[in-house]
Design a protein that fits this description.
Layout lengths: L9 H14 L4 E5 L5 H7 L8 E6 L3 H6 L5 H7 L4 H15 L3 E7 L13 E7 L4 E7 L4 H23 L4
Parallel strand pairs: 1-2, 1-3
Antiparallel strand pairs: 3-4, 4-5
Length: 170
């Protein structure tokens, strides 16, 4: 588990992610609960993003996670929305819904109260590629905005790593 993400590095990491996607001819889609569009907006604020960002889904409610992204309702009922399996399904759902090479998702608890039995600061980032789906758990601290910003930066770092691993589209 990582406990650190630098808020000031967000723009630099986004710039690197956009460049990596364009260089490799890869497209990206987002699925965001916790960050509610912050991740897509950070990418879109980066020059060149139109060459790689397919779109995104803000899935704040479980009904949107299930109905739009295809997260299994039984999974949401069993574990709640803050879970690695949910993050994986969200990322894969965004990838499929937007027709992209890579999907990246965020789900977690920004506070001020725990949610679904998970502590404030618990965050899962999901990453889906054509060949794999994975989730990464984090524990962040601070107020709602700080946790959301740290989650966005962590997602950007995971996106950059995924883009480096996916390779070139044939």
């Amino acid at each position: 588990m990582s406990t650190h993400a630098s808020g000031s590095g967000g723009a630099q990491t986004a710039t690197a992610a956009v460049a990596a996607a364009i260089e490799r001819h890869l497209t990206v889609a987002t699925a965001e609960s916790l960050t509610a569009g912050l991740l897509a907006a950070t990418l879109a604020n980066t020059p060149g993003a139109s060459g790689m960002l397919q779109g995104g889904v803000v899935a704040y409610q479980n009904s949107v996670k299930a109905d739009v992204l295809g997260v299994p309702a039984h999974l949401l009922a069993a574990v709640g929305s803050v879970d690695g399996g949910v993050a994986e399904a969200m990322a894969d759902g965004a990838r499929r819904a937007c027709g992209s090479d890579v999907g990246i998702s965020t789900t977690g608890v920004a506070g001020p109260e725990p949610h679904d039995g998970k502590a404030v600061g618990t965050v899962f980032i999901g990453v889906a590629t054509p060949t794999s789906v994975s989730a990464f758990e984090y524990r962040f601290s601070g107020d709602r905005q700080a946790i959301r910003e740290q989650a966005c930066e962590a997602a950007m770092v995971r996106l950059l790593a995924a883009l480096s691993d996916v390779g070139y589209r044939s």
